[in-house]
Design brief:
The protein has 468 residues and is α/β, with parallel strands linked by helices. Helices cover 37% and strands 13% of the residues. The strands form 4 sheets. The protein has an 8-stranded parallel beta barrel, surrounded by 5 helices. Helix 9 links the parallel strand 8 and strand 9. Helix 2 packs parallel to helix 6, helix 4 crosses helix 6 and helix 12 runs parallel beside helix 13. The protein is globular, with a radius of gyration of 21 Å. The protein starts with a helix and ends with a helix. 46% of the residues are buried. The mean pLDDT is 90. The structure holds phosphoenolpyruvate and manganese (II) ion. The site of phosphoenolpyruvate has 9 residues, from loops.
Length: 468
């Protein structure tokens, strides 16, 4: 099994920061999670069909390389020390149908524009991580759903089953694992091709313009930044006598919630030039809030892979519990290994976050702190529609910066659900979307996302907060 799992990889031309090897965790294999309670997993009715799909998946090529994974760990270690800032964002869940050229490139455009705003304002390089190329599995609050006295399994994301409310769609279908891998690979391939082709070149921010936002109220502020960056670039290039290489190509990394453990296990491989095991389906897997139980299968799986790991932290997380989790996931306090993503809600963050910050600080642990201002601010309107208010999202982020400053810790990143489409899913923002606007372009089948303008506005807020 070991030999089959060894991947052949090309070392990159340019090495990023080298992360010192530590050690392989004891009593761990890619399958050891199976002996632990695994919540949020679908029930596959035919085990032979599942095995067949997993056998195929184990043979398919990986989506990323160990070199990229270790390079990202170096970047996250820098962010933990205040030398970079993490921007992680994308859909709540990707859908197979959304694997299209415009949707992928529009999402990149938004993230590139946001990172330009952030670089300009924070005077820091930005680590860009998409919630894409694998964000297909969703945790749910109930296993089943009843409509008109019919009960069916809940929708768990396109890699498990379909959203339509009929028995066939809701059946957990292992063939979707293969399709999910393929869609992830297509997304990844397109992102890499765009980036390699110069799409992300800072000399050409006009490539990232989105047609429908020409009259946005934020455009003039954004244009001024673009102009100012262009001037600085030209100045530096005049001094250097040539193009400044770093700015011609920016990197994107991928992330998704490591939820569906059979899938993650099948993409967990060894490589010839690095010791240990890597999840080669993504650079940066994270553990969701509902699966962060210290005795659970998700923590068991993640402790053994060498990728950087994110962990969602919510209002109910206790300081001692968090410290034990850190011990399990990062026993050697390795730089860039752990990112703690707090998602408390604007109402609770002032009370819930400080005890966690002081406990982690007092323990001497080095982690990257990141704020997800989305998931603690979800609400259901009387109409049943799920939304988030921009003012609450902004408020949580705003408070998080201040709370970190007061605690002597550093907020080094932000985790957002966003899209490059002109959706109306979150209320408020520069155009002050109201409840009645939500019916106009509500496209998410899971959580509500920031649209382009709301995303850019949030980036500007971060700059105002941190950049002064
Ligand atoms: C998510 O990121 O989509 C999610 C479900 O988050 P959390 O685990 O924080 O609830
Ligand atoms: Mn979500």
């Amino acid at each position: 099994m070991m030999d089959a799992a060894v991947q052949h990889e090309q070392a990159p031309m340019k090495r990023e920061r080298n992360i010192a090897p530590v050690r392989q965790p004891e009593n761990w294999t890619p399958a050891s999670w199976q002996a632990f309670p695994a919540v949020q997993q679908p029930t596959y009715l035919d085990p032979a069909e599942l095995d067949l799909a997993l056998d195929q998946l184990r043979e398919l090529p990986p989506l990323v390389t160990s070199w990229e994974i270790l390079a990202l760990r170096g970047l996250l270690a820098d962010a933990a020390e205040g030398r970079r800032f993490l921007l992680q964002g994308g859909d709540c869940a990707e859908s197979f149908d959304d694997c299209t050229s415009p949707l992928i490139s529009n999402r990149l455009k938004v993230m590139l524009q946001m990172s330009l705003v952030l670089t300009h304002g924070l005077k820091l390089p930005i680590v860009r991580v998409g919630r894409f190329a694998g964000q297909y599995a969703k945790p749910r609050s109930a296993d089943s759903e009843t409509r008109n006295e019919v009960t069916l399994p809940c929708y768990r994301g396109d890699i498990v089953n379909g959203p339509a409310f009929d028995a066939e769609s809701r059946r957990a279908d292992p063939r979707r694992l293969i399709k999910g891998h393929a869609r992830s690979a297509m997304t990844m391939n397109f992102v890499r091709a765009l980036i390699d082709g110069g799409f992300a070149d800072l000399h050409h921010p006009e490539y990232w313009d989105l047609a429908w936002v020409a009259h946005s109220p934020l455009q003039s502020e954004y244009r001024q930044m673009v102009e100012s960056i262009g001037n600085s670039l030209r100045f530096m290039e005049t001094l250097a006598g040539s193009a400044v290489g770093e700015f011609q190509r920016v990197d994107f990394h991928t992330s998704h919630e490591a939820l569906l453990l059979h899938y993650e296990e099948a993409l967990t491989r060894q490589v010839p030039r690095h010791w240990g095991w890597f999840n080669l389906s993504t650079h940066f897997p994270w553990i969701g809030m509902r699966t962060a139980d210290i005795g659970g299968a998700h923590v068991e799986y993640c402790r053994g892979i060498r990728n950087p790991i994110g962990v969602k932290v919510g209002v109910s997380t206790q300081p001692d519990q968090l410290l034990r989790l850190i011990d399990v996931l990062d026993p050697d306090n390795e730089p860039g290994r752990l990112t703690l993503i707090h998602r408390m809600g604007a109402k609770h963050v002032a009370k819930a976050l400080p005890p966690l910050l002081s406990a982690v600080r007092a323990s001497g642990r080095k982690v990257l702190w990141c704020c997800d201002p989305m998931h603690g601010n979800t609400e259901s309107l009387g109409s049943g529609v799920k939304t988030r208010r921009f003012e609450n999202i902004r408020d949580e982020l705003d408070q998080a910066f201040d709370i970190h400053a007061a605690a002597g810790t550093r907020l080094g990143g932000v985790h957002l659900e966003l899209t490059g489409e002109n959706v109306t899913e979150c209320m408020g923002g520069a155009r002050d979307l109201t409840e009645s606007d939500l019916t106009r372009a509500y496209k998410s089948s899971v959580d509500p996302r920031l649209n382009y303008e709301q995303s850019l506005e949030l980036a500007m807020l971060i700059v105002r907060k941190r950049g002064d």
